[in-house]
Amino acid sequence: MTNPAITKQEINFRLKSASEYGQASFAGIVSLALALVFLLNSYSAAEGAFRPTVLAFSIGYFVFAGLQLAVWALIRSNLIRKGEITTATRSLGYVLLLSLLTANIFIAAVAFQLIKRKKTAAYTLAVYTLMTTILVFAVSALNLFKPYVSDTFLIGMVLLLLSAAVQFIALLLVAKFANGTLLPSWMWLVALLLIVTAVSGNLFALFLGLLLIGKLRDKGYTTGSKLNDIVDRLSRSSTSMLGLLFILFLLTVSVTSYLTFDYGMAIDNNYSAIFQPPSLEYPLGTDNFGRDLFSRIVFGARISLVVGLLSTLIPVLIGGALGAISGYYGRQTDNIIMRALDILYSIPGILLAIAIIAAFGASTTNLIIALSVGAIPTYARTMRANVMLVSTLEYVQAARAFGSGDMKILFKHIVPNSLAPMIVKSTLTIGTAVISTSSLSFLGLGVEPHIPEWGNILKLGSAYLETHSYTAIYPGLAIIGLVLSFNFLGDGLRDALDPKLD
Amino acid sequence: MKNKGKFAAILLSLTIMISGCSLTTKKDVSESPQPTEGTKVVDSNPVDIEVLGMSANEADLNIIRDQLGKNGFNVKLNIQADYSSYKAQQDAGNFDVSLSSWTTVTGNPDYAVRSLFKTGGDYSILSDSEIDALIDQAASQTPEEFAATYKDFEQKLVFDKAYIVPLYSSLKAQALNKDVLNPASVRLSKSRSLPWEELDFNDVSKRNKDALVLQSTMPTLTSLDPIKGNDGSINIINTNQYVRLVNLTDDDHITSVGSLSRNHAIAEGNSDYYFILRDDINFAQIKDKLAVDTGERVGADDVIFSLDRAKNKNSVPDHRTFTLHEHIKSAEVVTDLAALDAVKVSGGDSTVKAALEKGLDSKISELVSDKTQANNASGKYQVVKLTTTTPFPQVLNYLAHQSAGIVSKKQVEKINTYDVAKFDPNKDIPYGDQNTVTEGSAYNNTLYTSGPYILSYKNDYDAIFYKNPAYMKGTEHEPKINNIKIRFIKDADSSLSALRSGEIHLYYGVSETKFDIVKGDAKLSLQTLPSNAVSYLLFNTKNRPVAESADLRKAVLYSLNQDDFITYYGGNKFKATSTLSPMVNTGLELKADAAKAKEFLNAYKASK
Asked: What are the residue boundaries of the Solute-binding protein family domain, all occurrences included (chain B) (predicted)?
């Protein structure tokens, strides 16, 4: 069956055009690296022995990394020899799915992609929806090892299970029907149920629900909705999907933690459990006051996300509005607004934030305001440039010829078409906002010291970097993870939303 | 589809079954509130309380917040970044309780209570005549007698009136680089500051070549005039710049060793104190940034001058230490040798003269009033007699404090020519002003120091000291290292890093949480000793509910658990009942009691 005449370029083209190939190598290498990290961690030099749980994890990761790399080799030979991935190779994806048991989302995400030959946006969303819920369920289930759980734990877990069930059914249905242009009308029910499960913070479910509804309403008249396009493009980059997965995982955990986590574990001191190393009861160990680091990081996600999102949303709204007005009206209006913003722009952002907090005191609200104010000018500039570009387009002139008012033209025709760069920019800067929040807390200028905010946790941990390093490493990893995720998502969104690709 | 539903249902029921069996919820573990007998049911709303503290004590504040929160309070933390903003908040009365700490640097119990709790004391916001009476009564008693008085005092202060909540007493800890410094030469004393003259390198050939590097947090020195400051920025510095009449031993006993006096004696009646002076200390001064001998001896006239200005509130503007010396009535030079023979020592049969002569190489043949005439080898001595206003044996502890350091009468009178009442800080430059030793245009070092070292100059990063070339030359107290440098490092973690990297050689004040790191470093050695430092919560006495209601104060008192603090600090703190605890064992102990706390809190709510 080998074709000796096939050229090197052809081979390269075949490998590049199959997204499964690149994804498989990515997942394999990441898993291998993680397995090594776990292996190094499992050996405790003090006792001269391996810790069984971590070692088991490491072995699990090694096994699946090996499998994944084997599948990668198979895909490669399939592509070179046959130009496509065979059904047998694809069915290996089911085996790889088992890696979810070791919480290896990298391999699992790739496996879902491998199983399905023709991937639709709905299928991808359904996969990520289910994975998010399962991860959240697994993380929340770790609370079972605690001496006690919160009063609403059972309700929360049952609700999570129910949504997982709904999402699993939706996945199967989507896999079966979404290829066709026409969806059966009872899919309305599935879509609505999915949207209900999105209350947990799992926005994948919301997107999926909206996508399905869009399809149902469209009745096959058009080729697909804009959301469909974006998800399609975004899902081509596995890093940005993983980024989005981590963000939405944190969001879901933050929301469900109201039911499944006990806030007391995170803020009440427990003097009999000071500096417990990571164990099942305390998955990430305890800090110098005997508080569970795991619970603290979970509750910290809430603050980091809220502060990060709000301190990006506020300047997007204010800066966007100012930039739009400035760009549309031009002349004096433009001059006055932009020069005023230039003055604001000339003040270093973090110094401004420190000054605001020093003047008004340290609290979450002040923190958000402090971080927002400094970011307004950059958004205004971005928006202004877009508006100036869009307002010269024909359809705007057409609207003007029809006698539409300025406000209507600006906010109905121009702003919606200038939003894409703003979305990309804001996604990329949420990461900065998260870092700024943590930096200010680290300096003692953020929220109160006992509140589990990531910067606060890191600050406490940094004092014990040598003796109990895990108190600093885990919050640090959480911050890195969230910021990286936003950056990856931003990159993916830029590609997906780029008007030049339209 | 049917199968999936079934699967989900099975999974669901399985999970509920498994978890339902063994799951304990928070409600199960939290104790049901015990109704206390005799108290009527009152509202269960938490009581607001504002706790003031410094960010350096964030850990303590967190424990306090946690413990009060668990006992029915709603805690609002007011955390200030540094001492001055903390003090400003405290002076403005913006607190219900303030986290305070006190170190009895003189090592005597009177100091631990007088300025803190007596009406009108330096740091006191209390005004309670019973407390005042007990403080005065104990002051006039000997150690055997005052234990009982101080027990009554503690009972009143802590348990009956609940003016303070004691938290813990601390260790004094310092870490040193044992590769560089000789650990045996580094003393750690309960109260006394580190004597620099004893410090030595392992390699004695380095004494003249290398600088010994110490550390301090505060580059702004309050004043180099010993009576004008009593705080962390200058206590160690002034202790080593000015010699005193007596010293404290490492365990807080009075000694003449290493002091200006060769011997001292307490006369019958505990009101007269005699000191026989050395003749081998000259004042040092700085010329061209190097220390030189002024040729002027430290003598009785300087002692009398120094003690007079120490007790006199109006001798200098901003006198910070006169309350320590308010028991001094007068100091005079004794020239009549027969007078020494006429008085007996307190609690003994020997005469004062015999007591002063004890251990001297040559007996007293003559007492001189002119310090230049003194020659100890030939038996010519100077003796100073100090009289207290009331019998007060603890006066010796105050004389060992840095504020009783001996300054040069000639030099201080030469510099301090201003009129104290009309002192203008913009124009007049007092003796010891830190600007005169800070590098820059205002540099004009006029210090005359009687101690083992003298400050040459300083900037924001370090201060350079040289040894006094004429300080007890040829004795074991002669300073060994020629040059000492203090590095100003504000942050504790940075200081520890500096020690570990060899940038500094000795770090005083290692935090308990860093002990493990120091012990784990092969070139470092850790010295610890229980100190006279006590942390406590002070209640506001004005315009706050805690000022009016003893019940509310007692609710706070019994809410706080000292054991938790000790656990948090890894057993490196000790229980305390008041600021007296490190010095006087009264046998009283504060035990946390949640039931009592609840009872008092309910009583407070009922009385509202």
From this structure: 266-602
For A122-176, write each residue's pLDDT tens digit. 888 888 999 899 999 989 988 888 888 888 888 899 999 999 999 999 888 888 8
- Give kind and range of the element (H or E) at residue B485: strand B483-488
Judged by a CB distance cut-off of 8 A, whether residue B4 touches chain A is yes
Exposure of A84 by Cβ count < 10 A (0-12 exposed, 13-18 middle, 19+ buried)? middle
* Per-residue pLDDT at A187 exceeds 90: no
CB-CB under 8 Å, A161 with B26: no
**How does B538-553 read in b/e, with b if 16+ C-beta sit within 10 Å?**
bbbbeebbbeebbbbb
- Is A448 near chain B, with CB under 8 Å? yes
Kindly tell me if the per-residue pLDDT of B145 is higher than 70.
yes
Q: Under an 8 A CB cutoff, do B11 and A161 touch?
A: yes
Distance between A175 CA and the closest CA of chain B, angstroms = 13
- Please say whether the beta carbons of B402 and B196 come within 8 A: no
CA-nearest residue of chain B to A270? B564
Nearest to A275, CA basis, from A300, A296, A295, A293: A293
Check if the beta carbon of residue A19 is closer than 8 Å to that of residue A233.
no
Is 80 exceeded by the pLDDT of residue A371? yes
Interface test with A, best of B62, B94, B168 (most A CBs within 10 A): B62
Interface residue A262 vs chain B (CB under 8 A): yes
Phi-psi region of A85 (alpha: psi -120 to 50; beta: other; left: phi over 0): beta
Contact A268 B8 (CB under 8 A): no
Residue (of B580, B606, B584, B578) closest to B161 by Cα position: B578
d(CA A81, CA B115): 92
First to last CA, chain B: 66
Burial class (CB in 10 A: 0-12, 13-18, 19+), B444: exposed
- Residues on chain A touching B63 (C-beta within 8 angstroms): 269, 289
Whether A359 has its CB under 8 Å from any CB of chain B: the answer is: no
Query: How many CB pairs below 8 Å do chains A and B form together?
Result: 94
Answer whether B14 touches A (CB < 8 Å): no
User: What is the per-residue pLDDT across B539-567, written as a single tens digit (0 to 9) for each?
Assistant: 999 888 888 888 999 999 999 999 999 99
The Cα–Cα gap between B425 and B435 comes to: 12
Pair A125, A204: CB distance under 8 Å: yes
Token reading at B470: 């004429």
Check whether A1 has a pLDDT greater than 50.
no
Query: Which pTM value belongs to this model?
Result: 0.82
CA-nearest residue to B494 within chain A is A463
* B-chain residue closest to A147, CA distance: B24
Within 535-594 of B, beta carbons closer than 8 Å to A belong to 563-564, 567-568
Give the DSSP letter string of A438-459: HHHHHTT-SS-TTS--HHHHHH
Residue numbers in A near B59 (CB within 8 A): 288-289
Bridge partners of residue B274, in order along the sequence: B265, B385
Option in A148, A153, A450 nearest B65 (CB)? A450
And the tokens for B473? 């030359």
Burial class (CB in 10 A: 0-12, 13-18, 19+), B75: buried
Choice between B6 and A64, residue whose per-residue pLDDT is larger: A64
pLDDT at position B305: 95
- Taken in order of first residue, the domains within chain B and their CATH numbers are 46-171+531-607 (3.40.190), 179-209+218-437 (3.90.76.10)
**What is the C-alpha to C-alpha distance for residues A153 and A161, in angstroms, rounded to an integer?**
12
Q: Which residues of B touch A448 (CB under 8 A)?
A: 77
Spatial contact of A324 and A410, defined as CB atoms under 8 Å apart: yes
Going by DSSP bridges, is the β-strand pair B453-458/B383-388 parallel, antiparallel, or unpaired?
A: unpaired
